[in-house]
Amino acid sequence: MPRSWVLMSIAGMLLGASLLSAQSTHKMTKADVDRWMTELSNWGRWGKDDQLGTLNLISPAKRREASALVKHGVVVSMAHEMLTERAVDNSNPLVHEMLPSHGVFYIDNYSMSFHGMGLTHLDALCHASYQGKLYNGFSSDSINAQGCPQDSVFVLKEGIVTRGVLIDIARMKGVDYLEPGTPIYPEDLAEWEKQTGIQVTVGDAVFVRSGRWAMRAAKGPGTSFAGLHASCAKWLHDRGVAILGGDADPEVAPSQIEGIPVPIHLLTLVAMGMPLLDECDLEAVSKEAAERKRWVFLFTAAPLVVRGGTGAPINPLAVF
User: Fold this and answer.
1) 317 near 285, Cβ under 8 Å?
2) Is 68 found in the same domain as 97?
3) Of 154, 187, 260, 281, which one has the fewest beta carbons inside 10 Å?
4) How many domains does the chain fold into?
């Protein structure tokens, strides 16, 4: 391991020790989430009819800035291979069937339910509601058998192009993966910025690596995952993050707030209007970024164009 990473690992261990005593300061309740649903809200910020949410923060200038990051033309996928075997973290695996051939053509059929812990996917804003409301105040009662009239994945048909930032918490702490159920606090995110010299800025796509897929390879499927603590929501809002990705949901599971099983999902999707990229595989991009000592890259992804959809399977790309 390079000397710089040894120092980073030592610093990470010291940080971890200090965070043990700090955990009590991050204790949150349902009342705190209710308050932040208002305080961190972007409802009306871009107009009463807005359905893009924080993707409005990605300006043409931001896209040009991101494009200038491409120096070598190396492309790394941040999607995990679609799992076809049922497991405790993949209750709805991909079903891939070959259909009868038609002369010289061969045809197959894919069937999946992509929300869950098994398949890399995008959560559109209508994937979650709180107290009967979707992002920007649209009523969840409007969702019907035809899908979501507002806040659906359809509004993302032009794709997403911006600066991607990898926040590699597992690497910072000198481990292959964080143990299941380990919360990641705002101090961790800030420490990563300090140690790498990378500042998350308005319009960035942020990917937080806990090492979930390395953990799965070592320990097998599970139902507990490291990820962001709910107290990170304000950090995401204050930094102006446009889209959040993780190698799990990307929040800690199980939740540490009684009565709120997915606080990060609610605060990002519903209050802020921030789409999520769940179950990304950040192992390859972690290795590439470490070898290049570059934690920023051109990020691009384009979901399926499905009117009314709550999201879509997706292949996020990092270009160095």
Assistant:
1) no
2) no
3) 187
4) 2
